[in-house]
Amino acid sequence: TELVCYRDIYPNAEKTEYMRKSKPIEKFIKCVELINPHVNITASWSTDQDDSDDDNDDGEEESTGGRIHNMECFKEVYYHIMGKGKNGCTSQEIQKLMGVDSNTIRMCMKKLVTSNIVTVKKFDQGKQRHLIYYA
Known about the structure:
single chain, about 140 residues, alpha+beta
């Protein structure tokens, strides 16, 4: 994150916009650099939980239940799973790699499994059950 003057981002702003009301100084804006600029932010904030199984053959983007997933994200997840080899990969590892919420990862993994690109096996560890994905 970085603090930037208001007029650096909005150079045509009026004085009432960029000045504080309590003190006669300029406002600052906190700028955040995204880890992956190709991830759809509004999709990860979406509260709509409907998943549809419509296949979209245009190859560019896939739209399901109010979420838009870039095909590059699917490819990145697939190559990460394939790189793990015989050990496989859990959804938590993929979530750390991608930097998105668990619902987006779960939907992405569901799409990869239903299209028979990735296989999934259950692994019991004590009282916990993990899903391990193999390519």
